[in-house]
Write a structure and sequence with these properties.
alpha+beta; Glucose Permease (Domain IIA); three-stranded antiparallel β-sheet; PSD-A
Length: 211
């Protein structure tokens, strides 16, 4: 699905700041400088570029732009039902905040969990912060992704409902103003990224599902 280059979810913020800048300009140009710069920042923050989606069997693409914080084996009882490989990605305010489906599949699980708003680079945010889960079934495999609010984020947006089908790399939501995105893969998956690696949502291949 093609979307505007500036996500619609950012239009109200940009419009409000632009009006404020125009009103300030009527008083003095210097007063309009800050809201004008904030307008440009909001437009840039909500950018939603088109991405070339890699093709190939069993490929898993990054669900978000950002930097990999850690990769580890964990227990995941919500949807994976046991052991899983967790890939955690930190998004700064300078990253694109559109989330994309890591694999093609059917949405079988969706849950919103209220929580705190700790800094998104804290390794515990995935357990205590506000977050939303989306579970996909791709062939015989289950894949879970979560959108985690950060210190500045106060709104998680997730569009698909249970029963919807997503294509690999398809947009499924966004998080406003700094956050973390986490991905759980089934045991035996090949992970191709490590801590410190930069990834691009829908574009970077971060792993392969088991045979």
């Amino acid at each position: 699905m093609r979307r505007p280059i500036i996500a619609r979810e950012g239009w109200p913020f940009a419009a409000a700041l632009l009006i404020l800048a125009l009103l300030a300009l009527l008083v003095h140009w210097a007063l309009a400088l800050l809201p004008a710069l904030l307008t440009l920042f909001v437009l840039w923050f909500f950018r939603d570029p088109e991405r070339p989606i890699p093709e190939g069997e069993r490929l898993v693409v990054s669900p978000a732009d950002g930097r990999v914080m850690f990769v580890r084996e964990v227990e995941e009882p919500r949807f994976m039902g046991g052991r899983a490989i967790l890939v955690s990605i930190f998004l700064s305010v300078f990253d694109v905040h559109i989330n994309r489906a890591p694999v093609a599949g059917e949405v079988r699980y969706r849950e919103y969990v209220p929580g705190q708003f700790l800094a998104a680079w804290d390794e515990t945010v995935g357990e205590v912060n506000e977050r939303a889960y989306l579970g996909l079934v791709s062939g015989p495999h289950r894949v879970l992704v979560s959108q985690v609010a950060g210190l500045l984020a106060r709104r998680i947006i997730t569009w698909p409902q249970v029963g919807d089908r997503l294509q690999r790399g398809e947009r499924f939501g966004l998080i406003r103003f700094g956050s973390c995105t986490q991905l759980w893969l089934p045991p035996g998956s090949e992970v191709l990224v490590g801590p410190g690696d930069r990834v691009a949502g829908g574009k970077t291949v971060i792993g392969r599902l088991p045979q």
